[in-house]
Design goal:
The chain has 7 helices and 35 strands. Strand 8 and strand 9 form a beta hairpin. The protein binds uridine-diphosphate-N-acetylglucosamine and magnesium ion.
């Protein structure tokens, strides 16, 4: 059985934030969620989350059934932190120690680490760093076997030259921890109970410490400040960008691409710079997305063209549609095949029928448009009376003249026309013309004012 312990009690002083560090995001998702995601992929019996600073907030966000919330009231060191969770773990389990602020660890790496644990071995994840400053160094004996970990602050000048460092992630049998953790002392430079001291204890009992290394050092980098958060954010985004390109997507600049969720893309899709994808986004084949677009929990079918600065949120876009530049499709927008939303058009809870065009400066909300409708510039569906929302329906082939207000609830019939500048408050029957505006008068004897 596997029990995962995630250490997340630290304060994160250098983040200069009121929020606990582990709740700060990478790719729009709290670091802790990344860690728990990798942990869950290993199918553990339970996840033990050691909280301290900001524990109320952490508990509020992670009270899931498979998470055992453990409070470490005082942060007396990593060994002390693991000790807090120890009584909740099964004697015959293997414990995997993770850090809540080391977000990009991969499940595959952890799986390899777990395979290192046996009755007389424990697994330790180490990495060789060009700049090992700040980390615990791995000491090896003349046979190359790990003998101890020495913390930066306790290390000799010679030990500080060692490039191999402790990532802090390890896998060890609970039965072993039960013997070792109570023996930890805090007689060291930081006055803390170091989890790392169990390495020497393991050796003293004749166990071997078997090391494993991650594929990339970014997997084991921790976040202590905003700079490191940004660095891991970029690494994460580069990975997604690279994966998409491998799948055949053209990213005009992979450095200016952000995915904060799950993006599924068909073939021959071109994504211009500075686009942001959030939540679940599905894109079909042959879609072109212009610069500065934001797509949130939306789907876009084949052959669509989304021009610059367009924002989609919970929108469903059918095949062959065209949107933007500067279109905004809000939640509940459903566009059928070949429909168009042009510049400065906002839609919400709106069905836009096949081939319908809403090309300029328009608001369509709580509306159902048939096929082949043409909505002129400056049209507003007046859906809100200050208290309730009301529906507008527009039949197939209707033509709405520019600068019209359709005061809902109202229905415009199929093939009907609304004269430009109308304020429509009553239904317009099929194929009829509805005009509701002041009649034009021309005043012949009118004289222009003259300057005094
Ligand atoms: C620790 C390791 C060091 C390793 C480094 C990798 C020890 C003694 N040292 O050092 O060998 O190279 O990580 O980053 O283990 N935490 C708690 N409760 C505590 C103390 C810490 O939950 O009482 C949590 C922190 O929130 C953090 C993690 O444990 O997520 C590591 O703590 P940190 O203080 O960063 O340890 P380091 O001194 O960096
Ligand atoms: Mg640290």
């Amino acid at each position: 059985m596997l029990e995962v312990i995630v250490l997340a009690a630290g304060k994160g002083t250098r983040m200069k934030s009121n929020r606990p560090k582990v709740l700060h995001p990478i790719a729009g998702k709290p670091m802790l969620s990344h860690v728990l995601g990798s942990a869950r992929a290993l199918n553990p019996l339970r996840l033990h989350l050691v909280m301290g600073h900001g524990s109320e907030l952490v508990a509020a966000n992670y009270g899931a059934v498979d998470v055992n919330l453990v409070l470490q009231e005082q942060q007396l060191g990593t060994g002390h932190a693991v000790l807090q969770a120890l009584p909740d773990m099964q004697d015959d389990s293997i414990a995997l120690v993770l850090y809540g602020d080391v977000p990009l660890i991969k499940a595959a790496t952890l799986q390899r680490l777990l395979e290192r644990v046996s009755e007389n071995t424990m697994g330790l994840l180490t990495v060789n760093l060009v700049n090992p400053q700040g980390y615990g160094r791995i000491l090896r004996d003349e046979n190359g076997a790990v003998s101890a970990i020495v913390e930066q602050k306790d290390a000799s000048a010679e030990q500080l030259q060692i490039a191999e460092v402790n990532t802090g992630l390890m896998a060890v049998r609970v039965a072993d921890l039960q013997r070792w953790l109570p023996q930890l002392h805090c007689d060291n430079a930081q006055g803390e109970y170091y989890l790392t001291d169990i390495i020497a204890m393991a050796r003293a009992e004749g166990l071997s410490i078997v090391t494993e290394q991650p594929d990339s050092e970014n997997e084991v980098l921790g976040v202590n400040n905003r700079q490191q958060q940004a660095q891991l954010e970029r690494f994460y985004q580069q990975q997604i960008a690279s994966q998409l390109m491998t799948e055949g997507v053209t990213l005009l600049d992979p450095e200016r691409f952000d995915c904060r969720g799950k993006l599924v893309v068909g073939s021959d899709v071109i994504i211009d710079i500075n686009c942001v994808f959030e939540g679940e986004v599905n894109i079909g084949n042959n879609v072109r997305i212009g610069p500065n677009c934001v797509l949130i929990n939306s789907s876009v079918a084949d052959n669509c063209v989304i021009k610059a600065n367009t924002i989609l949120e919970e929108a469903t876009i059918g095949a062959d549609c065209e949107l933007g530049p500067f279109a905004r499709a809000r939640p509940g927008t459903v566009m059928a095949q070949g429909a168009k939303l042009g510049n400065f058009v906002e839609t919400k809870k709106a069905n836009i029928g096949a081939g319908s065009k809403v090309n300029h400066l328009t608001y369509i909300g709580d509306a159902d448009l048939g096929a082949g409708v043409n909505v002129g510039a400056g049209t507003i569906t007046c859906n809100y009376d200050g208290v309730n929302k009301w529906q507008t329906t527009i039949g197939d082939g209707a033509f709405i003249g520019s600068n019209s207000s359709l005061v809902a609830p109202v229905a415009i019939g199929a093939g009907a026309t609304v004269g430009a500048g109308s304020t429509i408050t009553n239904a317009v029957p099929d194929h009829q013309l509805g005009v509701a505006r002041g009649k034009q008068r021309n005043i012949g004897k009118w004289k222009k004012p003259e300057k005094q």
